Amino acid sequence: MTEHWDEFFLKLHHQQTMKEQLSTAENDESWMMISIEEAMKGISKGSLTLSDEQEVRFQTLPVFENQLTISLPDSLIPEVRARQTVTSSKSFVVQDKLGGILLGLHQSGQELNPTQIEVYQQQMIEQTSRAQPSMKLVEEKAFSIQDTIFGCYEAIFLVSPSPYYQIVFVRSWRGKAMIGSCQFKLEDAPLWVPLTYAMLHTATWSELS
């Protein structure tokens, strides 16, 4: 066990610089592989070519009975559900199993007024911290997209063999809480952090019930 933990922390050591950069990067996108704006332009064109010539192609999917439209990298495959239930119809999950990337959206039945976003966000952070002691909070913030307030926090999960980075957000949608998250390997954060925010910025939400 000692050898296992020595190897584990050795692997984490080379991530420390990135972790420090991420924790102070609120107004600095220099550590990102691309900017959020570049990712948004790629979504609008349907594809994005990275500096290493890797191409990210996007697909636009209607979600929640066409009430939400979101553009995602086509490496993310919608989860197939054996049986549609009331619960599953309010959740949308896509993943890239090979890449270790998971994105999910969930329509909560809990009422949420836009003025309560930051309080709700704090409750989510506290609950997750208790359930996942390995979580290290990197940043928490609130921002506006298309005149709608989003609460958001970013965290690192120090798990073996690959530490994970997660972006969690919440917004009020039709008076209820809409919760979403995207998680990926920490080493992939320079690409998937801007991609996640670009997906949020370009999503189209129907506010009609």
Summarize the structure in words.
It is built from five helices and eleven strands, in the order αααββββββαββββαβ. By secondary structure, it is of the alpha+beta class. Helix 3 packs across helix 5. It is globular, with a radius of gyration of 17 Å. The N terminus is likely disordered.
Cα-based radius of gyration, to the nearest Å: 17 Å
- What would the principal axes of the Cα set say about the shape? globular
Approximate strand percentage: 35-45%
What is the share of helical residues? 25-40%
Individual helix count: 5
Unreliable stretches (pLDDT < 50, length at least 5) are 1-5
Termini Cα gap: 55 Å
What is the tally of beta strands?
A: 11
Biggest sheet strand order reads 4-5-6-10-9-8-7
Structural class: alpha+beta
Succession of helices and strands: HHHEEEEEEHEEEEHE
Overall pLDDT metric:
84
Main β sheet profile: 7 strands, antiparallel
Structure at a glance:
The chain is 28% helix and 38% strand.
Features:
alpha+beta, 11 strands, 4-stranded antiparallel β-sheet, 7-stranded antiparallel β-sheet, 209 residues
List the helices and strands and how they pair.
Layout: H1 2-13, H2 16-23, H3 36-45, E1 47-49, E2 55-63, E3 68-73, E4 77-78, E5 91-96, E6 101-111, H4 117-131, E7 135-145, E8 148-157, E9 164-173, E10 176-185, H5 189-202, E11 204-205
